[in-house]
Amino acid sequence: xxxxxxxxxxxxxxxxxxxxxxxxxxxxxxxxxxxxxxxxxxxxxxxxxxxxxxxxxxxxxxxxxxxxxxxxxxxxxxxxxxxxxxxxxxxxxxxxxxxxxxxxxxxxxxxxxxxxxxxx
Length: 120
Prior knowledge:
Elements: H1 14-25, H2 31-38, H3 42-52, H4 69-108, H5 112-116
């Protein structure tokens, strides 16, 4: 590759840059067209946009997440509901088994809880 012998460093005024950014914002020209017409790199033009755009200083960072917070909250609420349902079933089972032990104790005439209860 040969170097250009007549390559000149050009500087564009702030007013020129602001004017071109305004044209870009008004969609009168594209970055590619501007780059070709004035022989300026697209990177330089994007720097102008960041610096001189009416939106440039007020940029917000956008965080892209795999799951949104509301979806995550919804999933956690579903999990809580499922666990509460399981606890309810276990409470019914415990009540039933306690009743069986009580009825069995009466039928056999001895306290099954004391006889077979756990030694803690």
